[in-house]
């Protein structure tokens, strides 16, 4: 047995067509049902006519005043907003009043309320039949009329199409034109109302601003009076000048004081150095000190002169020394007076500095106060001027609004009036039937593929080879007439048997195949007739063939070929009869049969015995081919044991009937005993199957491939 060849299969057109060909009754039935339902609905539907009116929206405002900036009406210029306005209850109510639509004809009411089959109507009919109380709903004429309206905005334009449907073509055109006219009137009224609202709002704002102007001017005047702000700028300049003057004077005083303090410090440092005292201008400017300094210098010269003549204790030297000391003390005393005067002067300068600093601080406070007053005054002044400006602008706009409200223009007009339609737009029977056919085709095809997805039976050669990994060796088509037991043997032969023999011969060219078991998964798959047909074809081809009926549960080979059932195979085991005495010659020259005979109580043991194998081996020497018609593999374990000692096993599988899980179970059993499965033969195939050659593999078949691969390798 070959290994399962699990490969990814691409879905192609031929595979689709084969699936549809096999399942076409479902496709045709679904398509016919959908087309029939569509036809019934189309023929029962009330013909509807459509009246169309074309409007244009002009974004430019023809009025001299743009009210959109005041009323925000520009937002309503969007076509989406206008669609909502057209279908509003207020507009439709005016339309109904204009055409007296509350008294619609009964036919039109039926169109508005019920349109063909509805689930809700079906439920209502059931409730009515069982006596369930029904709530009476009063129809809303506005809602009924709204269902008739369809509004379309033409892309990249300011055009809008209003469409109204009605069973009466004249009314359809009338309703569309009336709706457009009422909507234009409503839009004009709305714009005028917006203009009136703008005028009222502007009047209120003008009054409010007038009061604000008066209040701001009064606040400004009151502030000037309270703060005595006659000439704020002049006061500011005066204070600034005074601050500058005080700063200059204060700086001069500080400089003078610092100079005097420096002199004082210098004098104190030279109090005992008379020879340097003349370097201080303030000291030398003192007349008394100047005279004393001159006298001191003269005596000093005189003392130096007599010091050369007289000794230290000479009276003249003592006298001059005493005078010099006296003058020095007087100079020191006079210098002390100068220092005292400097200290007094410094103190006076400090007092003046403090006075000037206080005055400067006072003027700075005045400057800050003036600045604060200037800021407050500026705020009040700007507020008054701003209120005046706004008041002026709104007053001007109020005058313009008063003038423009009387000449406001509409920005919507009719481009094309609706004409009476000549033919209904629905039902479109040709279109509906075509769409129903297409829908039925797709839906029916989907159902076919869905059924194919869940179908896990073996249907053809692809299933056999790709799903199960079993070689395909033939297909036997289904007979239109039933096989008559014991009738002419030619009835069991078909073209499929010839093809099967050809494939078997191709196999026999490369392998030894003298004993071949023909078995199946379950009973009723056609293994007996297939074995008989193959034997007959081989016999007519000049091969000496022996048919062995080894079906231990339901032997039918003699009934098919019309020969005696006894003696047979099992007589060889119990009566010691020679094999050649049990073999029967059929009407065909080269075809022989070994019937089953009387089935004993232990057929399984006999089938799987060594003696059975020896019998078949000996018979194989006398014939070109032994075909053993056995019971289904699942019926007895002895069948698998016998198969393991034969040259090959041909597995009979009934197309569209045998589940691939059953076949897997059989293949696993044969694999365990190392039986040689030559291949599979499909029976009862039909023309739709193409004798099993080629089947579509969708996702369902791929899924089956994976499942089978796992089961076979487990």
From TrEMBL:
Topology relative to the membrane: Multi-pass membrane protein
Keywords from the named record: ATP-binding, Cell inner membrane, Cell membrane, Coiled coil, Kinase, Membrane, Nucleotide-binding, Transferase, Transmembrane, Transmembrane helix, Tyrosine-protein kinase
Membrane spanning residue stretches: 24-43
E.C. numbers: 2.7.10.2
Keyword Ribonucleoprotein appears in the UniProt entry: no
Gene Ontology MF terms in the entry: ATP binding; non-membrane spanning protein tyrosine kinase activity
Reaction catalysed by this enzyme: L-tyrosyl-[protein] + ATP = O-phospho-L-tyrosyl-[protein] + ADP + H(+)
Domain Tyrosine-protein kinase G-rich, first and last residues per copy: 380-450
Coiled coil residues, start to end: 206-249
Compartments (UniProt record): Cell inner membrane
Annotated InterPro entries: AAA_dom, Bact_polysacc_biosynth/exp, GNVR, LPS_length_determ_N, P-loop_NTPase, Wzc-like_C
Residues of the AAA domain: 517-674
Polysaccharide chain length determinant N-terminal domain segment(s): 9-97
Gene Ontology CC annotation, any one: plasma membrane
Predominant localisation class: membrane
Highest taxon above the source species: Bacteria
The keyword Transferase is assigned to this record: yes
PANTHER family reported in the protein's UniProt record: FERRIC ENTEROBACTIN TRANSPORT PROTEIN FEPE (PTHR32309:SF13), TYROSINE-PROTEIN KINASE (PTHR32309)
Similarity remark: Belongs to the etk/wzc family.
Record-given protein name: non-specific protein-tyrosine kinase
Source organism of the structure: Candidatus Electrothrix aestuarii
């Amino acid at each position: 047995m070959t290994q399962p060849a699990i490969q990814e299969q691409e879905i192609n057109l031929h595979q689709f067509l084969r699936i549809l060909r096999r399942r076409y009754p479902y496709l045709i039935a679904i398509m016919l049902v959908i087309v029939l339902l569509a036809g019934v609905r189309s023929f029962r539907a009330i013909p509807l006519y459509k009246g169309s009116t074309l409007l244009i929206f002009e974004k430019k405002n023809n009025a001299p005043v743009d009210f959109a900036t005041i009323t925000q009406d520009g937002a309503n210029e969007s076509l989406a907003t206008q669609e909502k306005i057209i279908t509003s209850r207020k507009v439709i109510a005016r339309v109904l009043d204009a055409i007296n639509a509350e008294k619609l004809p009964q036919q039109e009411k039926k169109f508005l309320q019920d349109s063909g089959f509805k689930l809700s109507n079906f439920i209502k009919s059931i409730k009515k039949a069982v006596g369930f109380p029904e709530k009476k709903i009063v129809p809303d004429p506005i809602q009924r009329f709204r269902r008739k309206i369809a509004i379309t905005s033409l892309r990249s334009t300011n055009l809008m199409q209003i469409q109204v449907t009605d069973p009466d073509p004249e009314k359809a055109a009338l309703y569309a034109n009336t709706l457009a006219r009422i909507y234009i009137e409503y839009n004009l009224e709305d714009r005028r109302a917006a203009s009136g609202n703008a005028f009222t709002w502007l009047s209120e704002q003008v009054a409010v601003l007038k009061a604000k102007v008066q209040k701001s001017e009064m606040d400004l005047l009151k502030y000037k009076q309270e703060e005595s702000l006659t000439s704020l700028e002049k006061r500011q300049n005066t204070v600034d000048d005074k601050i500058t003057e005080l700063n200059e004077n204060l700086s001069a005083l500080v400089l003078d004081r610092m100079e005097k303090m420096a002199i004082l410090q210098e004098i104190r440092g030279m109090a005992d150095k008379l020879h340097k005292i003349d370097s201080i201008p303030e000291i030398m400017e003192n007349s008394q000190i100047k005279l004393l300094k001159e006298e001191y210098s003269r005596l000093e010269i005189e003392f130096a002169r007599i010091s050369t003549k007289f000794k230290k204790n000479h009276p003249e030297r003592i006298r001059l020394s005493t005078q010099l000391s006296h003058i020095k003390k007087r100079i020191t005393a006079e210098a002390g007076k100068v220092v005292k005067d400097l200290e007094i002067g410094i103190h006076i300068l400090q007092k003046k500095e403090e006075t000037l600093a206080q005055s400067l601080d006072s003027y700075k406070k005045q400057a800050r106060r003036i600045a604060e007053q200037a800021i407050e005054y500026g705020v009040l002044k700007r507020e008054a001027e701003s209120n005046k400006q706004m008041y002026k602008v709104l007053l001007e706009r109020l005058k313009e609004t008063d003038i423009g409200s009387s000449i406001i223009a509409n920005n919507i007009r009719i481009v094309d009036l609706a004409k009476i339609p000549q033919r209904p737009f629905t039902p479109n029977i040709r279109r509906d039937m075509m769409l129903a056919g297409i829908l039925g085709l797709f839906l029916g095809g989907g159902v076919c593929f869905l059924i194919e997805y869940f179908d896990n039976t073996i249907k053809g050669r692809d299933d056999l080879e790709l799903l199960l990994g079993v070689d395909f060796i033939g297909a036997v088509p289904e007979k239109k007439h039933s096989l008559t037991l014991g009738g002419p043997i030619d009835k069991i032969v078909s073209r499929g048997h010839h093809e099967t023999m050809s494939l078997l011969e191709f196999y026999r060219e490369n392998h030894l195949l003298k004993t071949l078991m023909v078995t199946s998964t379950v009973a009723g798959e056609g293994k007996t007739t297939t074995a008989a047909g193959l034997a007959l074809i081989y016999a007519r081809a000049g091969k000496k063939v022996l048919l062995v009926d080894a079906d231990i549960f339901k032997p039918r080979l003699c009934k098919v070929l019309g020969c005696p059932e006894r003696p047979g195979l099992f007589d060889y085991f119990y009566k010691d009869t020679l094999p050649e005495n049990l073999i029967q010659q059929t009407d065909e020259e080269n075809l022989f049969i070994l019937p089953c005979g009387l089935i004993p109580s232990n057929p399984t043991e006999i089938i799987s015995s060594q003696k059975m194998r020896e019998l078949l081996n000996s018979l194989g020497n006398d014939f070109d081919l032994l075909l053993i018609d056995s019971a289904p593999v699942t019926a007895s374990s002895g069948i698998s044991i016998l198969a393991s000692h034969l040259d090959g096993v041909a597995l009979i599988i009934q197309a569209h009937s045998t589940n691939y899980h059953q076949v897997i179970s059989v293949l696993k059993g044969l694999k365990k005993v190392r039986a040689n499965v030559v291949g599979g033969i499909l029976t009862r195939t039909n023309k739709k199957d193409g004798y099993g050659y080629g089947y579509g593999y969708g996702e369902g078949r791929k899924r089956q491939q994976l499942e089978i691969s796992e089961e076979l390798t487990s």
